[in-house]
Amino acid sequence: MRTIAIINQKGGCGKTTVSINLAAALAAKGYRTLLVDMDPQTHCAVGLAVPEEQIEQSIYDVLIGTGRGEPMRINEILWQICERFELAPSSIDLAAFEQQMTGIVNRENCLQKVLNSIKDDYDYVIIDCPPSVGLLTFNALRAASDVVVPVEMGYFSLHGLSKQLETLSILCKQCEQKINVMVLASMYDIRTKMGREILAELKKHFSEKMFKTIVNFNTKLKEAASLGQPISEYDPASKGYKDFLTLADELIGTNTLAHRADLVNSLQAKLNIISASAEELLAKAESKTKAEDKPPVTLDEKLADFYGVKQLDGHIIFSTLYPRASVVQVAGDFNGWNPEEAAFEKVDDSGKWMLKLPLEPGTYRYRLVVDGQWQQDPYNRMTEINPYGEMNSVLQV
Ligand SMILES: Nc1ncnc2c1ncn2[C@@H]1O[C@H](COP(=O)(O)OP(=O)(O)OP(=O)(O)O)[C@@H](O)[C@H]1O
Ligand SMILES: [Mg+2]
C-alpha cells in the first residue's frame, strides 16, 4: 500500500481537487483506492456528494478512538464512491482534534496506526490535508510515503512556497520513514504569461522533484466538484480527466523514488534560489502593473493589491484570501490569543478578508483562525515555531 499526502498550507491551491480526482483515476486504472479527508472543512464529502447530515461517524471518531486506546475499525465509516474508490469522510469536529489530543502520547501517529490496520486492503491511500501545518497534517506526514504539493500557477503561488517547503522538510525529518516530496503544478492556464513564467521557474529549479504532468485549469473540474462527482464520472472525455490519468501513471511510475533519501535534503538548497526568483517575478509583475495602471489613490485601492500585514496610518492592516471561509479571525499575543475579539471583514466576492487593528510598537506573534481552524498567515513570511511545533506568524510594529 502506498500512502500519498496532498499538502499545501496555502488555501485554495487545488489540494482537494487533486485528492478526489487522483483517487478516481487510480481506481479507474484498477487500483483499490482509499481517500482520507483530514480537513475539518469536509470538502471531499461535499465534492463527492456524500450527504453531510448522514455522516454519523467520521475519521475523527476513528482517530480519537485510536489515540485513546479504544480503536474503532475504519471500515465502519467508509463510503463507497465508485468501483474500487472509497472515502473516509471528515467532520467539523476534526477541528478540535489537536486540542483534544493534548498530552496524549503518540498523538501524531494515530492515522499511521489506523492505515496500518488496512494495509492489505488498498493499493493507494490519498490523504487530503487542511490548509495548515498542525497535528492533522503531521498525522498525514507520519503515515505517508509520498507528499504531493500542488502549487497553483498564479500571482502569489511562489510567495511563501520556500518557507513552507522548509517547514515540510523539517517535519519530514522528524518522521521515521523516508518521504518522497514532489511538487505538482496545478490550475495552470497556458494563456497567461505569468503562468508560463512561473511554470518555467518551477521547472528550472525543481526539475526531477516536480511532476512532469501538469494539472491544467479546466472548468469541468470545477463543475464536477459542484455536482459532487469525480471527473472520471462527470466528463471522462475532458482534458481535466486526461491530466489526472497522466498524473496517476506518472505517480505509479515513480514508485522507486520513495527510497531516495536525499530528496528532502536537496530540496532545501533549491528552495532558497526559487524564493529569490519568486520575489523577482513578483516585483516585476508589480512594477509592470503599476506602470500600466493609474496609481492607486483611495485607501481601498492602496489596500486592494496586497495580502499579509501592513502598517498604515498608525494601524495594522491584516489582509488575506479565503474564498470559501465563513469566519476569519486573528488570535495573537496582542489580544490574549482570543480570536473572538478580532474578526476580519469580507471585502468582496473574490474571498478577500481584511482587519484593521491599532497596535503599539513592539513584536507580536499571531495565528489566523479560519472557520475555527488555527493556522499560520500564508502571506506573512516572518514565522517562528511555537512550543506546540506549529508556526506562529510574527509581526513587528
Ligand atoms: N485544475 C483546476 N481547474 C479549475 N478549477 C480548479 C482546479 N483545481 C481547483 N479548482 C477550483 O479551485 C477551487 C479551490 O480548489 P480546492 O478546493 O481543490 O483547493 P484546496 O487547496 O483543497 O482548498 P482548501 O485549502 O480550502 O482546502 C475550487 O473551486 C476548485 O473547484
Ligand atoms: Mg481542500
Task: Please provide a written account of the structure.
- A seven-stranded mixed sheet has the order 3-4-2-5-1-6-7, sandwiched between helices. Strands 10, 13, 14, 15 and 16 form a five-stranded antiparallel sheet that branches.
- β3 and β4 form a beta hairpin.
- The chain has helices at residues 15-28, 43-47, 59-67, 97-100, 110-116, 135-143, 161-173, 193-206, 219-226, 231-234, 239-253, 262-292, 299-304; strands spanning 2-6, 33-37, 79-82, 85-88, 124-128, 146-152, 180-186, 308-312, 315-321, 328-332, 345-346, 352-357, 363-370, 373-375, 383-385, 391-396.
- The model is unreliable at 256-263 (pLDDT under 50).
- It is globular and about 60 Å long.
- The chain contains 13 helices and 16 strands.
- With 397 residues, it is α/β, with parallel strands linked by helices.
- It has two domains: 2-277, P-loop containing nucleotide triphosphate hydrolases (Rossmann fold, 3-Layer(aba) Sandwich); 299-396, Immunoglobulin-like (Sandwich).
- It is 35% helix and 21% strand.
- α1 (15-28) crosses α11 (239-253) and α5 packs parallel to α6 (135-143).
- The termini are far apart.
- The site of adenosine-5'-triphosphate (ATP) has 20 residues, from α1 and α9.
